[in-house]
Write a structure and sequence with these properties.
- The complex is a heterodimer of chains A (235) and B (366).
- Chain A is mainly alpha-helical.
- Chain A has one domain: Up-down Bundle (Fumarate Reductase Cytochrome B subunit).
- Chain A has eight helices and two strands.
- With 366 residues, chain B is an alpha/beta fold.
- Chain B has helices spanning 4-10, 15-28, 35-45, 61-66, 74-81, 95-108, 137-145, 155-159, 195-208, 221-224, 235-240, 250-254, 272-275, 321-354, 357-365; strands spanning 51-55, 84-87, 113-118, 148-154, 185-188.
- Chain B is elongated, with a radius of gyration of 29 Å.
- Classes of the chains: A mainly alpha (235), B alpha/beta (366).
- Chains A and B meet through helix 2, helix 6 and helix 7 of A and helix 11, helix 14 and helix 15 of B.
- Chain B: This is hydrogenase (acceptor).
Chain lengths: 235, 366
């Protein structure tokens, strides 16, 4: 029977030889991950201060450009995040099969759901030993897929808001101006964009915690895997 | 058929005043001086387009605003030049006499007149909440619009619903474009709209005999193409990061940006920051108060006028993105801490056990 994860020891190759290290994440994918990390940090911090600005600066307006720089950083990081997202989607087509597992989640597969609930039980301390996955476990797949959708939402609403500033005729206004109308008003788009930012913050909290915890508890590498690309199985 | 020019001359307007009006109109529409002779020519040759002005569920602030238009003067633009044939609020005729005029225009100018709607029709109880001249307004609106060339939705009432459509909207006040589906509806939102904008829109339509270019939400691009924020004279303070923090602070006296006290300029499409009000005397931000966003859809139901991060109606009262986000982050943070603690305890417990029993279970698995 086809399974996604496996129990107990490290994966076996056909020759029954133990493999302790598997190449999972290719270089472009790792690069995307860390670029996204940096963009999100910049975007969240600057975005927070665009909605709730820092205390006023003294002096003449001519010699200050605080909001200007903050917004510039936000827009630049937004562009980088969006280009990264496009690159990531492209890599889903040309990369190895792990590059697809967070985009094409096999929700039609019974076995996948079985393992999804197994993972839920593992996280609720109801299973004593975790299953091992070379890529993502089913719960991780769902989390990552949700993250991609939120990021897509952020890019769409973000460029819609950006297009308001660049004005009619700009590419952002032409491509994403319809979003403002779809939400009813610009203020709604602002509010939802901010709410989704908090959604990403929650994701990052859970994501980082889960990575560190799995690194320790499930005896397989997590954090170093996103640096080197290799997943180690430590038993 | 009588042209605009004929009517104007009959009203005692000199040729000189007529040309002045043409150039003012061109300027207010954002057209170059090359358009002045075109406007003059159009007014000289085209038959005048009658305008019917209907009043639904509204407060008449649009009319109050409109009659104060300075460029072009409403008195010139509408009352004498362009034929505002029916407006039950400001017309001299009353009662059956007035309604007879309405009937006459509809028959005589079938398919050629413009209906300007101020206010909106309430649909609940068969429209009984607005009942002018012994007829539900929704029926009057449908009856008159049937033979119209186009409709103008004056103000936020006709465009979006405005305060009478505020939750829970007991009368089911409904914007015009959701009731009249088969005619072009030009939205001129604002509460009220800027008089010069109203006069210019109506002048454009009767002069060029076409609808001004509209944006995605049906508003004339020439006046609603940019946000208040984009042309605000306080914008340099926004970019510099200089804000009014409280109503009585130094920043307020120095005329800093009103963003932090809830100015909706960055999310509001209107021409206030360029055209201004009362013949260009002032406008809300200039007088020291943030924009309320009165020309935006739903501005009446979007939480405080004095906050930038406002309520999200779907989440109930006083729930804004930050409140929801911080609460959720706190919850998830606590959950993570608890989970980590249990994980650590479990892990130590297992390690102790793992000295022997693990191997047996592992063996069983295989």
């Amino acid at each position: 029977m086809k399974t996604y994860g496996f129990d107990g020891d490290a994966p076996q190759l056909s020759g029954q030889r133990k493999v302790t290290s598997v190449y999972v994440y290719e270089a472009p994918l790792r690069l995307w991950h860390w670029i996204t990390v940096l963009s999100i940090i910049v975007l969240s911090v600057t975005g927070y201060f665009i909605g709730k600005p820092l205390p006023s600066v003294p002096g003449e307006a001519t010699f200050n450009y605080v909001m200007g720089y903050i917004r510039f950083a936000h827009f630049t990081a937004g562009y980088i995040l969006a280009v990264g997202l496009l690159g990531r989607l492209y890599w889903a087509f040309v990369g190895n099969h792990h590059a697809r597992e967070i985009i094409l989640v096999p929700v039609w597969d019974k076995q996948w759901w079985k393992e999804f609930f197994f993972e839920i039980r593992w996280y609720l301390f109801l299973e004593r030993y975790p299953k091992k996955y070379i890529g993502h476990n089913p719960v991780g797949q769902i989390a990552m897929a949700s993250f991609l959708w939120i990021t897509l939402f952020m890019c769409v609403t973000g460029f819609a808001l950006y297009g308001e500033g660049t004005g009619a005729g700009s590419w952002a206004h032409s491509a994403f101006g319809w979003v403002i109308g779809a939400f009813g008003s610009s203020l709604d788009v602002h509010n939802w964009h901010r709410l989704a930012m908090w959604g990403i913050v929650l994701f990052v909290m859970v994501h980082v915690y889960a990575a560190i915890r799995e690194d320790i508890m499930s005896k397989q590498s997590m954090i170093s895997t996103m640096v080197s690309g290799f997943r180690m199985f430590k038993d | 058929m009588e042209t605009f020019y004929n009517v104007m001359r009959r009203q005692g307007v000199t040729r000189r005043s007529f040309l002045k009006f043409c150039s003012l109109t061109a300027t207010s529409l954002g057209l170059s001086s090359a358009f002045v002779p075109k406007i003059a020519h159009a007014l000289e040759t085209k038959p005048r387009v009658p305008v019917i002005w209907l009043h639904g569920l509204e407060c008449t602030c649009c009319t109050e605003s409109f009659i104060r238009s300075a460029h072009p003067l409403a008195k010139d633009a509408i009352l004498s030049m362009i034929s505002l044939d029916y407006d039950d609020t400001i017309m001299a005729a009353a009662g059956h006499q007035a309604e007879a005029i309405l009937e006459e225009i509809q028959q005589k100018y079938k398919g050629n007149y413009i209906v300007a709607v101020e206010g909106n029709p309430p649909l609940n109880e068969d429209g009984m909440f607005c009942f002018p001249g012994g007829e539900p307004f929704v029926e009057k609106l449908k009856r008159i619009s049937k033979d119209a060339k186009a409709l103008i939705a004056w103000g936020s009432c006709a465009s979006w619903g405005c305060v009478q459509a505020a939750k829970p909207n007991p009368t089911r006040a409904t914007p015009v474009h959701q009731v009249i589906l088969d005619k072009p509806v030009i939205k001129v939102p604002g509460c009220p709209p800027i008089p010069e904008v109203m006069a210019a829109v109506i002048t454009y339509m009767v002069t060029f005999d076409r609808i001004p270019e509209l944006d995605r939400q049906g508003r004339p691009k020439m006046f609603y193409g940019q946000r208040i924020h984009d042309k605000c004279y306080r914008r340099p303070h926004f970019d510099a990061g200089q804000f009014v923090e409280h109503w009585d602070d130094e920043g307020a006296r120095k005329g800093y940006c009103l963003y932090k006290v809830g100015c909706k300029g960055p999310t509001t499409y209107n021409a206030c920051s360029t055209v201004r009000w009362n013949e260009g005397v002032s406008w809300p931000v200039q007088s020291g108060h943030g924009c309320l966003g009165c020309s935006e859809d739903g501005f009446w139901d979007k939480g405080s006028f004095y906050d930038r991060v406002t309520g999200i109606p779907q989440f109930g009262i006083e729930a804004n993105a930050d409140a929801i986000g911080l609460t959720a982050a706190g919850g998830v943070g606590a959950a993570i801490a608890a989970h980590a603690a249990v994980s650590a305890l479990k892990s130590t417990a297992l390690k102790k056990q793992d000295l022997k029993p693990v191997e047996t279970t592992q063996a069983e698995d295989k």
